Amino acid sequence: MTDCDNRKLKQIWSEVSEDIKIEIGKDSYNTWISKLNIVDLDEGMLKLSAPSNFIRDNAISRFSNLIIRLFNSYGSNVKSLNIEVYDNNNPKITENSDSKNKVATQSETSMSSNDLPGLKGISVLDKKFTFKNFVVGKPNEFAYAAALRIAESEIPAYNPLFLYGGVGLGKTHLMHAIAWRIKEIFPEKKVIYISAEKFMYLFIRSLRYKDAMSFKELFRTVDVLMIDDVQFIGGKDTTQEEFFHTFNELVDNNRQVILSADKSPSNLDGVEDRLKSRLGWGLVADIHPTNYELRLGILQSKAKRHKIKISDKVLEFLAMKISSNIRELEGALNRIVAHATLVGREITIDVAQEVLSDILRSNEKYITIDFIQRKVCEFYNIKLSDLNAAKRQKTIATARQVAMYLCKQLTTKSLPDIGQNFGGRDHSTVIHAVKKIKERISIDREFATDLEILSKSIEN
User: Fold this and answer.
1) Do 412 and 422 contact (CB within 8 A), yes or no?
2) What's the pLDDT tens digit per position in 333-373?
3) What is the distance between the alpha carbons of residues 281 and 162, in angstroms, rounded to a whole number?
4) What distance in Å separates the CA atoms of residue 335 and residue 345, rounded to the nearest whole number?
5) For residues 377 and 396, what is the distance between their CA atoms, to the nearest angstrom?
6) Is the link from the previous residue into 160 a cis peptide, with omega within 30 of 0?
7) What pLDDT, on a 0 to 100 scale, did the predictor assign at position 390?
């Protein structure tokens, strides 16, 4: 291949990569595709390189048709795809993707519990993810309390502990926090923290090198086994079988098992019923999507911890507008702080809107005052005209105050604008309504629960 052809091929791969990112999402792209490199295109055979067998196998099984289709959309004539694995220490190809007789590199000769190939990534904990840095609110308070109880118990309090919730809500943070606290209080305990994908990868390698006993010795002799994102073993029958026996061995010997997933045990796709049953044996704790108060608390905590000078108004704006997950929320704060620092601008709401325009668009719910009013009327079974009238019946007055409160929480409208949409009332009336609702939330648990349900119905 000439230098010119090589440059053209790399340009096509760069464009194809961006297209793939759009189709499969940023997270999947970063995990599987970003690590691939273009090698050659010869007589319809597209050749890519991967840093490991695991990434290669998943890329081929999950994305080969997509890669071929997108390459051909740029005028290429790709008929087949071959992904080759390169040794990190040697550019020479060590394995062919369609080879039946795998050739191991020197570092991959055999397994032992002390020097297991691929152990890098096991029990690597983030120092930021501690209980001290975990902001507690109503959506996560139960999971937090359960995690803390497990971490500080000498013998298993609940076994297993199963944490579940959506992406970026704090599951991994709690897992790391548990490990750090155990290492602090019980330094003699052997703790392994590992992702489900890494567990599966090491198990497959143990079979390849005919050293399954070392794998069993490693994972079945720990005091605490923590597996993150356990949903990834769904559909992997052989891995599930090994995990099933590992789980039973540990629980039967009173060793702590802690797991996380994106769904509850009963809703895990591709997981055997007998394993689902065991995953739900102990304590199942869900982490709900964040509410406004929790998001604001997280931003305030992060700003204080890193000594970031930013006004409460900007933090309130971010907490209101970015509701997808904590990871994106913290990322947004980092972006505007970096921008303001590098450019030398004051951090204002206008600057935040400018810098975060892409994130704000993706999080925009288009919630209007009229929509909130209609939802509140449905909830309290009253007429829309009642909210704007001067009626003072208790039910109508409560519904009106609730609607004003939710308009303040869920929209960016000013107090005068909100008041005008409630029969031309003054902004002081809105302030009074918001104050009354906040006071009632703090003392009336049933009312607070009803309000949370109503709020979620509007946001979703």
Assistant:
1) no
2) 988 888 888 888 888 888 888 888 888 776 666 678 988 99
3) 9
4) 13
5) 9
6) yes
7) 78
Instruction: Please check whether residue 325 is in contact with residue 167, taking contact to mean a CB–CB distance below 8 angstroms.
Output: yes
Q: Whose CA is closest to 196, among 158, 142, 247, 153?
A: 247
442 and 435 in contact (C-beta within 8 Å)? no
Tell me which residue has tokens 């590098």.
Answer: 342
- Burial string for 284-307 (b: 16+ CB within 10 Å, else e) reads bbbbbbbbbebbbbbbbebbeeee
Which of 408, 409, 381 is CA-nearest to residue 419? 408
List, for residues 4-55, the tens digit of each pLDDT value.
577 788 888 988 898 888 878 787 788 889 889 998 888 888 999 988 877 8
Cα-to-chain-centroid distance, residue 64: 26
Using alpha carbons only, give the angle 412, 365, 433 rounded to the nearest 5 degrees.
40
Give per-residue pLDDT as tens, 179-213: 999 999 999 999 999 999 889 988 998 888 888 88
The whole model's pTM is what?
A: 0.57
